[in-house]
Design a protein that fits this description.
By secondary structure, the protein is α+β, with helices and mostly antiparallel strands. It has 2 domains: 45 residues; 140 residues, Umud Fragment, subunit A (Ribbon). Helices cover 24% and strands 25% of the residues. It contains 2 helices and 12 strands, in the order αβββββββββαβββ.
Length: 211
Amino acid sequence: MAVQPSSNLGEQPLGRTRADQNQVEVGRRVTGSSSFFRGLAYGFALLRGILIVAIILILFNVFVATVFSIDGQSMYPSFENGQFILVDRLTYQFSPPARGDVIVLRFPGDPAHRNFIKRVIGLPGEKVEIRNNVVLIDDQPIEENYLPAFTPTDPNLIVELRGDEVFAMGDNRPNSNDSRFIGPIPVKNIIGVSRAVLSGPAFGFIAQPAF
């Protein structure tokens, strides 16, 4: 007896079933969601890093050191208009100013709260005298090697400094508005001491003059 071939011997049709397609779609959605959340986490981590760096820079600028731009000629030729200088805010929190320090300060009573750059000449408790273009500290003349020869220093005056004041002048004496005209500077008005020039041919650390 002949056997007829059967057309339904349990063979499955080629191609994907609806269930397979649904699983593929679900897999795609899961993979897409994972990528989105990974990107979101990366973005938050990046933002947090930027905020931390910004906070560190702000704290450094306020408490440790600040870059200032010189505006004017009151310290010429030691410093020139437009130069950038690094100002150390931290040192005077632990030690007093020294003679010859180049400081950034605010003059008392200045309504504009401007920053000025000057050199410390007289220290707390000293007597500062200008006599015939010579600066005397406690009746002893000082040698100012950082000034060009024959730099005039006037007017003649005598100032007794209190225990919390310094006497500061610009190196460009004929063109400097300083303690000769405004009076002594309270130490609390000093922002910091200049440590380095950051631009121009004078780039480098600022030397401390000897007295």
